[in-house]
Amino acid sequence: MSENKSKLDNLLDISVVAELLHVSSRTVNRLINSGKGDLPAVKIGGRWKIRAEDVEKYLLKKNANSASNLQKLEIITNNRRSGSPQKKGGENQNTETISNEQAIRLDPGYADAYISKADALHSLRRYEEALAAYEQAICLNPDNIHAYKGKADALHSLQHYKEALAAYEQAIRLDPDNIHTYKGKADALHSLQHYKEALAAYEQVIHLDSNYAYAYKSKGDTLNNMERHQEALVAYEQARQLGYRG
User: Fold this and answer.
1) What is the dihedral angle through the alpha carbons of 135, 140, 142, 145, rounded to the nearest 10 degrees?
2) Is residue 85 situated within a structural domain?
3) Which residue in 38, 133, 141, 161 has the most C-beta neighbors within 10 A?
4) In this structure, are strands 11-13 and 47-51 parallel, antiparallel, or unpaired?
């Protein structure tokens, strides 16, 4: 393999990076910011591509930040549960403490604080704790799609696929056009070996975003499991053309 070919193989499509980071393609575009953002990117043939090593560096930094943010968010949520205000002086005050004003800006009911805490826990692969925090956010705000989506993702990571499917369904009821919620539903159905329903869900993802390479790859996997191998090859080729590198 030539050096140039190796470099191209190391470049990832936006949709693939979105899957790796558990965010939307729109969020990846914001991180890229036309090559000037937090996530370095290069433009190849009119499409933005991200180097695999830059994604790895970003994930390492994100996890480090998640650990730091988790300490701060635990202060917020613990204070909420206890009802005790944060100290404004004194020799034992934690320098990492977020002020009450900052906490209130997250959400008057602290639902967003729990969601941020849960996101940090999920990034650190502390899925049981993340699940508990997402459920607390749902108690505070039963209509928060992010909380249901996060709950579903945590359940899926814990291999509780039936419960994850129910949470994805609830998130879809709240936002019928959310690509990543449909993707999660499809993945849960696939894990349950409900291949016909999974295929329909992946098709819905593709309907919402025809450039989502991961959806084509997963569609191919599902078709393979259904022994529809020729159709699977077509789906895999579509994923490859869109930049999927599995």
Assistant:
1) -70
2) no
3) 133
4) antiparallel
Tokens 């949470």 — which residue? Answer: 167
Tokens standing for 103? 């906490």
Angstrom distance (rounded) from CA 235 to CA 228 = 11
Provide the phi-psi class of 90: left if phi over 0, else alpha when psi is between -120 and 50, else beta.
Answer: left
Angstrom distance (rounded) from CA 220 to CA 230:
9
In a domain, 81, yes or no: no
- Planar angle of CA 93, 98, 100, nearest 5 degrees: 100
Cα separation, 160 vs 15, in Å, equals 26
Q: Give percent of the chain with pLDDT exceeding 70.
A: 72
Q: How far is CA 216 from CA 14, 157, 191, 242, in A?
A: 14, 22, 17, 9
Amino acid in position 212: Y
Q: What is the pTM of this model?
A: 0.61
Q: What is the CATH number of the domain that holds 200?
A: 1.25.40.10
Q: Which amino acid is at 175?
A: D
d(C-alpha 47, C-alpha 26), whole Å: 14
Q: Judge whether 236 lies within some domain.
A: yes
8 A C-beta contact, residue 111 and residue 141: yes
Backbone angles phi, psi at 99, to 5 degrees: -70, 160
Closest CA to 145 of 189, 177, 113, 117: 177
pLDDT class of 168 with cuts at 50, 70, 90: very high
- 78 pLDDT band, cuts 50/70/90, is low
The answer to whether position 121 is within a domain reads: no
Question: What is the tally of helices (H) and strands (E) in the chain?
Answer: 13, 3
